Amino acid sequence: MQAAFAEKAGAAVVEKEFARASDKDKEWLELIDPKLRSRLLYVNPVCCLTTVDIGRGQRNAMVVSWLTPINNYGVFIMAINKQRHTASLILARRSFCLSAGTVGMESTLLKVGKTHGHHIDKFDQIEGLNAVKIDNTSFQKKSGKPSLPNAFNALLDSDSEEEGEKETEGHALLAEEAGILGCAAHMQCKVLSIVDSVEDVEGEGADEAESHHHIITARIERAFVSPDHWDGRNFVAKDTSIPACLSFLGSQRFARILPCGLS
Asked: Based on the number of CB atoms within 10 Å of its own CB, is 234 exposed (0-12), middle (13-18) or buried (19 or more)?
C-alpha cells in the first residue's frame, strides 16, 4: 500500500511542477559576457524574485527593487526584509532568479507583494503568475495541489528503484531556477554573502541600531533577455510598441523605463 502511495505521490510531484510547452514564442538571447549581465540592473528594474521552498515542494516569489550593481562582472547587492518568507529560503538555498517586470504586469506584481508565501502557494493562487525556464521556455501549471512533503517522505521510506526515480525527478524540477512569464529578462543568481544591515534610526548610532534587513551580495551566473529589450549594449524596450520595463515609485505606483527621445 505504501509503495502504491509512493508511486502516486511521485507522479504528483511531477504534476505539481511544470510541463514543457511544445512551442516557443521567440528565441531569447543569452548574455555570455558578465559585463553585459550587469547592464540588466543598470536601470533598476522592478524584479520578481523566485526561489524554492523545498520543504513544501513549491516555488515562491516576491517583488524587489532595492537592487544595485557594484561592478561590471554581474555582482550586485540587494536588501530584503528579514521577515519575508523569501529571506529564509535564500538563506537556505543560496540561489534565486530575478525577472524584470514589464508594463501590463503591475496588477500581478502588486498581488505578489501583498501575499505571504508562508501561507499560500503564490504560483497556484495568483492569476498571471506563471513560471518559465530562464531561457524563457514556457511552462504550464498543472491542476491539483498534492501534499508534497508527505509525498517526499513516502518516497524516501521506499526502497523501490522506480519510486526513487520519481522522487529524483520531482527534486530535479524544483532544483532548476525559474523566471516569470511576461518579463523582459531572467537572471539566475548565486549568493556570495549575506550580512545584517545597520539601520541608524533617529540618530541612535550603530551600536543601538536594529537590523531589519539582510544585505545580500550576489552574482548573475546566467542571464537571458528578450531581443525586443536588447540592442546589443543596453537593456531597454526598442520602441513604444513593446512593453517597457517597470520602475517602482513607491505607494503602489510604477513608472515606465524608456530612453531619452522615445516617448
From this structure: middle
What average pLDDT score do residues 65-80 get?
A: 95
Instruction: Write out pLDDT tens, residues 119-151.
Output: 788 888 898 899 999 999 865 444 333 333 333
Contact partners, residue 206, CB within 8 Å, separation at least 6: 198, 200
Strand 58-64, strand 47-53: pairing: antiparallel
| Predicted structure pTM score | 0.76
| 187's grid cell | 537572471
Would you list the domain boundaries of the chain? 24-135+182-256
Residue 237's nearest CA partner among 245, 246, 247, 225 is 245
Spatial contact of 34 and 71, defined as CB atoms under 8 Å apart: no
CB neighbourhood size of 120 (10 A):
13
Consecutive H or E run containing 135: none
Alpha carbon distance 226, 244 (integer Å): 12
State the CATH class of domain 24-135+182-256: mainly beta
Residue 33 confidence (pLDDT) above 90: yes
Distance of alpha carbon 3 from alpha carbon 11, whole angstroms: 12
Task: Tell me, rounded to whole angstroms, the distance of Cα 70 from its chain centroid.
Answer: 21
